[in-house]
C-alpha cells in the first residue's frame, strides 16, 4: 500500500522506476502512481506508451537526458519537482530502470527531503536484469558466479570512474557495466590489466527489452572491436563473466531446433 494515499491534498512526490523500456515490465505499483499523478517528469528512455496510463489533464514534462543534449539540467529537475509539489500536486518523477541504480534518484531524494516534501520510491526492473533475462543469462549461478557487481562505465565527467578493478577481477562474479557502450575498451583494458582473462565471455546489449534490442557476443578482449564494427547507437549495457557463455548454449539449442 502506498505510504501516501492518492487522494491526499498535500503536495508530494513519487520516484517511479519505469523499467528498461518494455511497458509490460512496469510494476502494478508504478502504474497506480502514474494514474494518480498531477504532473509527470519523464526520462528520454521512457516508452511513450507508458504515459498513456496518465489521466487526462496530467501535465507531462520531458526532462530526459540524451547523448550530447540535456532537456533539463539535474539541478533544474530537482527544483521543478519541489516547486510543483509545493503547489499541492502529486508529482511523479518517472525514471528509466530503477530510480536508485545509476538513475540519480538519490540526488532527487536528498532534495525532496531537504525541502520537506513527502516522497515515496517505487522500484523498477533495472536494465541488467532485463538484458540478462532476455538472453537467458543467470546473473548469479551457484556453480559459476556467486556475486554480482553493478558498475558504471560513464562518470560525471564522461570518463570511466576509478573502480577497484583488482577486486572486480578477483571476485569471480558477474559484472554489469552500465553506460559502457562508448567506454568498453577502457573498461576491458582495466579489467584485463587487473587480472581478468581476456577470454572471459562478454556481451553488449543495446536497447534492452525493447523491440529493437540487439546483442553482440564476444570476449572481454574482443568486445570493443566488435562494437567498433557494429556501431550500436542505443543505450548499451555490458555483461561480463562466465555466466554469459550460458546464453550461447541457449542460442545454439534454438538454432538446432529450427
Tell me what the structure shows:
This protein has 258 residues and is α/β, with parallel strands linked by helices. The chain has two domains: 12-122, Tetrapyrrole methylase, N-terminal domain (Cobalt-precorrin-4 Transmethylase, domain 1), CATH 3.40.1010; 127-254, Tetrapyrrole methylase, C-terminal domain (Methyltransferase, Cobalt-precorrin-4 Transmethylase, Domain 2), CATH 3.30.950.10. It is 30% helix and 21% strand. The chain has helices spanning 28-35, 74-86, 105-114, 127-135, 165-170, 184-193, 223-230, 245-257; strands at residues 12-17, 39-42, 59-62, 65-66, 69-70, 90-95, 119-122, 148-152, 174-178, 201-206, 214-219, 236-240. Strands 3-2-6-1-7 form a five-stranded parallel sheet, with helices on both faces. The chain has a five-stranded mixed sheet with strand order 8-9-12-10-11, sandwiched between helices. Strands 4-5 form a two-stranded antiparallel sheet. Strand 4 (65-66) and strand 5 (69-70) form a beta hairpin. Helix 2 crosses helix 3. It starts with 11 loop residues before the first strand and ends with a helix.
Draw up the topology in text.
Layout (H helix, E strand, L loop, with lengths): L11 E6 L10 H8 L3 E4 L16 E4 L2 E2 L2 E2 L3 H13 L3 E6 L9 H10 L4 E4 L4 H9 L12 E5 L12 H6 L3 E5 L5 H10 L7 E6 L7 E6 L3 H8 L5 E5 L4 H13 L1
Parallel strand pairs: 1-6, 1-7, 2-3, 2-6, 8-9
Antiparallel strand pairs: 4-5, 9-12, 10-11, 10-12
> Order of SSEs, N→C?
EHEEEEHEHEHEHEHEEHEH
On the 0 to 100 scale, the average pLDDT is 91
Q: How are the strands ordered across the major sheet?
A: 3-2-6-1-7
pLDDT below 50 for ≥5 consecutive residues: which ranges? 1-8
In helices, the fraction of residues equals 25-40%
The fraction of residues in strands falls at: 15-25%
- Number of β-strand runs: 12
- Class by SSE composition: alpha/beta
**CATH architecture of the largest domain, please?**
2-Layer Sandwich
CATH superfamily of the largest domain: Tetrapyrrole methylase, C-terminal domain
Amino acid at each position: 500500500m502506498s505510504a501516501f494515499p492518492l487522494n491526499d491534498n498535500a503536495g508530494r512526490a513519487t520516484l517511479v522506476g519505469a523499467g528498461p523500456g518494455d511497458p509490460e515490465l512496469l510494476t502494478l505499483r508504478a502504474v497506480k502512481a502514474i494514474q494518480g499523478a498531477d504532473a509527470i517528469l519523464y526520462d528520454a528512455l521512457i516508452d511513450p506508451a507508458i504515459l498513456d496510463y496518465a489521466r487526462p489533464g496530467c501535465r507531462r514534462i520531458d526532462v530526459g537526458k540524451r547523448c550530447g543534449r540535456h532537456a533539463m539540467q539535474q539541478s533544474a529537475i530537482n527544483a521543478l519537482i519541489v516547486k510543483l509539489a509545493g503547489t499541492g500536486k502529486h508529482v511523479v518523477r518517472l525514471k528509466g530502470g530503477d530510480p536508485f541504480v545509476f538513475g540519480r534518484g538519490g540526488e532527487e531524494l536528498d532534495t525532496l527531503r531537504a525541502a520537506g516534501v513527502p516522497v515515496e520510491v517505487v522500484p523498477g526492473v533495472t536494465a541488467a536484469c532485463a538484458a540478462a533475462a532476455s538472453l537467458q543469462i543467470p546473473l548469479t549461478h551457484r556453480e559459476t558466479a556467486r556475486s554480482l557487481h553493478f558498475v558504471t562505465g560513464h562518470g560525471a565527467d564522461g570518463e570511466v570512474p576509478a573502480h577497484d578493478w583488482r577486486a572486480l577481477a578477483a571476485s569471480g562474479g558477474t559484472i554489469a557495466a552500465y553506460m559502457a557502450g562508448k567506454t568498453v575498451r577502457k573498461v576491458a583494458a582495466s579489467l584485463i590489466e587487473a587480472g581478468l582473462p581476456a577470454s572471459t565471455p562478454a556481451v553488449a546489449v543495446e536497447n534492452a527489452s525493447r523491440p529493437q534490442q540487439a546483442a553482440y557476443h564476444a570476449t572481454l578482449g574482443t568486445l570493443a572491436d566488435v562494437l567498433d564494427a557494429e556501431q550500436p547507437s542505443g543505450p548499451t549495457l555490458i555483461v561480463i563473466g562466465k555466466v554469459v557463455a550460458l546464453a550461447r548454449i541457449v542460442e545454439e539449442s534454438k538454432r538446432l531446433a529450427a
